[in-house]
Structure formats: structure tokens, C-alpha cells
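Batch manifest, entry 17 of 40.
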Amino acid sequence: MDRDRRALGVALLAVLAAGIPARATATEAVAPPAWQAIAPGAERATLGSDPPVRLYRFDLTRFRAEVVVGAGRPPAAETAGALVASGRAVAAVNGGFFDEHVAPLGLRIAGGQVRAALRAHADWGVLLLTADRARIIHTRDYHAGPEVRGAIQVGPRLLVGGAPLTLKPQRARRTAVALDRDGRTLTLVVADDPIEAGELAARLAAAGFDAALMLDGGPSTQLALDLGGVRVDLPGGYPVPDLLAIVSATRR
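Output type: C-alpha cells
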């Protein structure tokens, strides 16, 4: 694992900002999220207040989660705002880590095609997307299969079986993805102001999520949404090579 982390080069700061396993931190007591409908199958809520954590939950029978990787090698970078403004998604957040050449670090599968290889020894998680479900697993449990339409390998994991993991206490802007037990709803999670990883994990556990995975954070953190008359644009510091996007399940 240490050898793999050394190989990350300039991505080391991003990994540290995401919070690698260390020790737990105290958490703000927060009320359960008060979900508000945006559109059929889509809801939003705010979790806590210091800082607020934004949640956008999607029913995967009405919406489809996709990994979007830019064309070329390394991939052409794009912002979440540009992707949503183009009409190719109703919502999007940044994806995983990348190097100084803007090449993704870790597994990326987009449209069923492997765009970046698995880092087999990385102590990270993998978000797996199939036709109408999502799962989060550890790297060691990943097995390629034709049913996987999208994947992002990144880390650390925040929740496993509804329980928060112990994480290094370090504050940063955060992007994450959270799932229910059956993987039938997927929630985009964004803290636009710095928050410790352990605090975020504890809040998501208290909110009833079963699994959660940290995506890249810091200046990479960004979210855009345009759905049901609700428009949100939380810009990041720069475009990124891959995004986690939400599209209508009827769009092909």
C-alpha cells in the first residue's frame, strides 16, 4: 500500500485531503435530513449547518448514474457546470483522483469501456454502476463483469454497512457519493466549505446511509444541477478528467 501511495506523485495532496484512515473525530449532532422533492425520483436536503452538507438523492429506476470521461489520452477535462449546461446530464459532480497530466488514477469505466486501469493494491473503494443499481466495494473485492457500465476507483470509503470508518482528521472541501442498502438510490454529497472526513462520515451514518465513498476533494470539488426548476452551480478550481453524472433513465 505504501508503495502504491508513493506512486501517486502529485496526487498525494489530493489523497491526503480526502482523508486516509487514522483516527475518528467528534461530530456535530445533526437532525435527520428533511428531503424536498425536486422532480419525480429526485430530492434534495441539507445535512447539518457547520458547515452545511448538500445532498441530492436520485432513484435509479427513474435516473441513471454514469461515469463521464473526456475524450483522448489523457482525457479532455470538463467542469460539472459545462456538462450540465450542455444538456448531457441533469446533475454532475467531480470524479476521482488524477495526476499532473490530468490522467485518472485508478479504475475508470465509462459506457462499459475501461478508460483507466485498476490500481490493484490501493486501499481505496470502487463505485460500481449497473443498469439500475450502484454498489461500493473495496478494491480487493473488484471483479470485472459485463454488467458494470460505470466505475470510479477512489477513496477512502466513508461508510461500510452503515458504520463510519476511522479517518484522518483533516479539513477540506468534499465530494462524496452515498447509497442506500439496496443500491437503488444514489446520493451526490457536497460540502462546499471545509469539513473533516470523519465528521462527514458520521453525519452520513446518522442520516441512515448504508455505504459512502469519498471522491476527489479540495479544489476538485464541484457540483452542478438543473432539474425541476432548480439550478445549482458550485464551481471547482478547474475542469477535471472524469465526472459522476446523473441522466434521465429514458435518455439513451
